[in-house]
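input
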Amino acid sequence: MAAIFTPGLKVAADTVILKDRRLPIEGELLVSEGDQVTADQIVARTQLPGKIYPINVANQLGVAANRLKTFMLKDVGDSVEEGEVVARTPGILGLFKSESIAIVSGTIESISTISGEVIFQANPIPVEIDAYINGHVVEMHPREGCVVQANATMIQGIFGLGGETKGQLVMGVSEPTEVLKGDAITADMAGQIVIGGSYLTIDALKRAADVGVAGVVTGGFDYDDIKMLLGYEVGVAITGNEDLGLTLVVTEGFGEIQMAPGTFALLKERVGQRASINGATQIRAGVIRPEVVVTDDSGQAPKERWTPPEPTGISIGDQIRGIRAPYFGRIGRVKSLPVDLMTMESETRVRIMEVEFEDGEVAMLPRANVESIER
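output
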């Protein structure tokens, strides 16, 4: 049977997932291979070196650089607290003393009698990573992290903002065609992940952040609202570090687009369960999709590492979604995969596929204008 390769979007009620949990630099691992872990469990930790602050203490004291050490109250390697006096001149008859204070808590790294500078290094920044999902540790990366495996419900979106967070799934609308508005966000949704429908208004997003909602999952969202909210333009190539106050996952695209009924139904079935979501999106090499992951609270999962099957591409009968106008966001199934090139309105010749949409309409789409939906 004919098949083609194209980007895939996973929407699956029961699948095996692997999550690579790594520290930014080498550190300490707190789990071992085979351990059962929960989403909030810390699996590794390290300390990032603190920022360096060069301060010309000789100038502050009004002394020659070569005499600086005479007036230092602290030496190289000593710990200091922010606001603590680190150098002082005796003044005249005990008067007119000059002092230099530490501008940061940390240590003194060096004292230069040539430049008169003292190098302060801020205290290390502790960094911890959790398991993110309930599951089993199936692989170790010495001093770096581990791989956690679980059986899970996995729903991927096409765009997101904000990083990893967790919370209980709760419905904000009753139908996938419904718009999630500000008055639907209530105080008892704090710390939860709210499921929307076809569109999320800017008022609803602001209200959700004010209430303390952990995340929002919606079919559509207005791209211009992002700039209004953040105050700057956000590129769609790499996201995930935005400070929204919550995490946003958009499943269908920009504008008012009904959430795919299958996606909405799957999320609705999982209401009341705790989910892990991540808005990080990367559309360049090494594609990263925003996601909603629900694992069993018990953390039970296969202990043997699962090997993903080789990609098979799109075949006749597979479900796809249009990713460009005029079929953007529409769901259908592949009827045929013609071999011959077809001339489009732009006069370009491309490979196409015949797609039957959910409403019965049949259309010819360039193969580059669709993505597969893995279920």
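quick obs: The chain is about 10% helix and 40% strand.
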